Amino acid sequence: MIKAVAQAIPTYMMSIFKIPEGLIDEIHSMFARFQWESTDPTRKLHWHKWEALYLPKAMGGLGFRDLKSFNLALLAKQGWRLIHNLGSLLHNILQAPYFKHGTFMEAN
Question: Which residue range forms the structural domain that includes residue 81?
Answer without folding.
Answer: 2-106
